[in-house]
Design brief:
Helix content: 10-25%
Bound molecules: adenosine-5'-triphosphate
Order of helices and strands: EEEHEEEHHHEHEHEEHHEEEEEEEEEE
Radius of gyration: 24 Å
Shape: elongated
Largest sheet: 6 strands, mixed
Length: about 350
């Protein structure tokens, strides 16, 4: 286990700044997830930590010691990729034992440790099979077992679940979290899937355009997004964002008014409001908007309302009495966010 610190870490590919001087402290024994859209620099960051990509600036520290000049094999890391990269001609047991054998451990002891790691990931039944005789989920678990068997300082995982179908993905995700708890290691995982990130992370790091937008516990990012990007990227459905104006203690957009008790400023602004913080009241006539679509999802209902300024998505109870075509008054709870209008935005 190790604390991993990134200091002004930077990576340029010619004119492209893939990672733009980021600073991050990954706590010892944490499950840290780097989340962001394609091309935001998360894989490059992971590869720099692994030593697969050279940093063009800054420092990487494991437990206070600089590692950025060390080759990957000197960093005491294990990496798990989207593709499982198993040896096709070796059995499951041999695949898992391979890193130990490479270090010169005798066959019997390596086999015993590999069998133990396989047991943690429910692979004991398939130890004698070759990778092609396994499902995708099992193959990925073999790759995970091969990573944990070495007990490295840091585990680096690059989209390890993205080749799995939805159900296997959920199962494997739960098992991955459990494995991290059991092993107690420092895990750093890269994904563009916000659900996966929310459910796995102790520390969630949202990246965009080579920069860290916000880092913290997942619920903190959900409840207090630092800017519009984090608001829209974390949480499903995406946070509603409405452009308008603050004046006289209220936010207004095309006639829709949201009181802002204690508003600290006036002028153009963006209102951010989560679907569950919209309060819809059906009206006999008129109203702020009209219900366009009602999506019944069982435990909850998503309601898309057409407003003068655009659409809003509200979350209601599974059995909410609401129908498409209805007029509605649209209110909010007090949990609304004000972002700056002219940039990515920050919280007022
Ligand atoms: P994805 O989820 O698609 O893998 P990512 O967030 O992991 O995206 P990176 O792979 O880190 O993003 O890429 C960040 C930026 O750096 C992108 O603009 C990418 O095109 C660029 N880039 C990455 N590797 C190289 C390279 N070897 N040469 C040139 N540009 C690169």
């Amino acid at each position: 286990m190790a604390t991993v610190v990134l200091e002004d870490l930077r990576c340029e590919f010619g004119p492209v700044v893939a990672v733009d001087s980021i600073n991050l402290e990954v706590p010892d024994g944490s499950f840290t997830v780097l989340l962001g859209p394609s091309g935001c620099g998360k894989t490059t960051t992971l590869n720099m930590i692994a030593g697969l990509e050279e940093a063009t600036g800054g420092r990487i520290l494991f437990d206070g010691g600089q590692v950025q000049h060390l080759s990957p094999d000197k960093r005491d890391i294990a990496m798990v990729f989207q593709s499982y990269a198993l040896y096709p001609n070796r059995t499951v047991l041999e695949n898992i034992a391979f890193p130990l054998r490479m270090r010169g451990m005798d066959k019997k002891r390596a086999g015993a440790l590999a069998a133990e790691a396989a047991g943690r990931l429910q692979l004991s039944e398939v130890l004698g099979r070759k990778p092609r005789q396994l499902s995708g989920g099992q193959q990925q678990r073999v790759a995970l077992a091969r990573a944990i068997v070495r007990q490295p300082k840091v585990f680096l995982l690059d989209e390890p679940l993205s080749n799995l179908d939805a159900k296997l993905r959920n199962d494997t995700r739960v098992r991955l979290k459990q494995t991290q708890r059991d092993v107690g290691g420092t895990f750093i995982l890269v994904t563009h899937d916000q659900m996966e990130a929310m459910s796995l992370a102790d520390l969630l790091v949202v990246m965009n355009a080579g920069r860290i937008q916000q880092a913290g516990p997942p619920l903190e990012l959900y409840r207090r997004p630092a800017n519009r990007f984090v608001g829209s990227f974390v949480g499903v459905p995406s946070m509603n964002q409405v452009e308008g104006e603050i004046a006289e203690g209220a936010f207004t957009a095309s006639g829709w008014r949201v009181p802002l008790p204690g508003a600290v400023r006036t002028g153009p602004a963006v209102l951010g409001v989560r679907a569950e913080d919209l309060v819809l009241t059906p009206t006999e006539q008129g109203g702020d908007g009209r219900v366009r679509i009602v999506e019944r999802l069982g435990t909850e209902t998503h309601v898309i309302v057409a407003m003068a300024h655009g659409e809003l998505t509200a979350r209601m109870a599974g059995d909410a009495e609401i129908e498409a075509g209805q007029g509605v008054q649209v209110g909010t709870t007090t949990n609304v966010h004000i972002f700056e209008a002219d940039e990515d935005g920050s919280r007022v």
